[in-house]
Amino acid sequence: MLKLEVGLGDRSYPIHVGRGILGNPELYTSVLRSRQILVVSNPTIAALWLAPLKNALAEWAPQTLLISDGEEHKNLTTLESILTRLLELRFDRNCTLVALGGGVVGDITGFAAAVYQRGVQFIQIPTTLLAQVDSSVGGKTAVNHPLGKNMIGAFHQPRAVIADLATLGTLPEREFAAGLAEVIKYGLIRDAHFFEWLEANMARLRARDPEALTHAVARSCRVKSEVVAIDELESGLREILNLGHTFGHAIETGTGYGTWLHGEAVAVGMSLAADLSCRLGRIDSYLCGRIDRLIRAAGLPVDLPQDLDPAHMLDLMRVDKKTRDGRVRLVLLERLGAAHVTADYPPGALDATLARAPDATA
Which residues are catalytic? Predict the structure, then answer.
């Protein structure tokens, strides 16, 4: 088992990465404050992994709540059901919520922990690749709104993240591939050597080779931990973690939550961000091609949905947390392993990227 740390002073917390570790009681002993524990999961994950977790927590006799699966259920109605259960149980401020599942379970459980009695602690046990390398780390919690993804939320750090690689063995291929989008992102924004490693080892990752998977998850978590420790509240550097996400969230909203997986939409978004970076002369066409080849090698798309009009896409992109004074700010690449956030680009260049039209200035 590997142990990483998100360094936030007295709110620092560990990330445990290993195989078969979610049933280890020692990982919970130092975190739990009382016997008031609510495990939130969904029926699919609970059928596979709730039993070993409850065995590990047997001494504390945890309660359980199962919520509906899918991005379309990450909303205020589901949030209310979690809060109602906490009130029915008469849980106090020393209670702990445990999120057992993917990004939807983790995001909504974390948000419930952020707002219940103005904040209680929670533990992340991510069971998808995307959640293990991204959404479970860093304290971003939220629910969706019909007009925009993750527009209602709070920063609320977990007390621990327990990434059990054994859970990835039961993950459907499409969801596993979706998680690879976030893995690729870390190489693009901050770790050129990792990007090159991914180019050489993508086949091993897709085959779920244990050694390659351990390396990819740990490396991704390490990069994200470094960025979060520098900029917890996303006032500067942390925004680079959103490479492809402004495009991706618009795809998810425009096609209806759950139609496209988050990682699939982000994969297209990263391709579009690379395309725009190339049009602006910040990276060359060779690197742009490498990025698209790696995304495709991961089994992910690079093109916008055919039924999503570019003009509508742009309207949806304006509903983004990085937008300032009506200007869409985007994460663009400076070179392999470096990115920045900017609204300084010709509107025509973005239009051309969305339409994938030739650059008229080339």
Answer: 118, 140, 182, 224, 234, 238, 242, 245, 249, 262
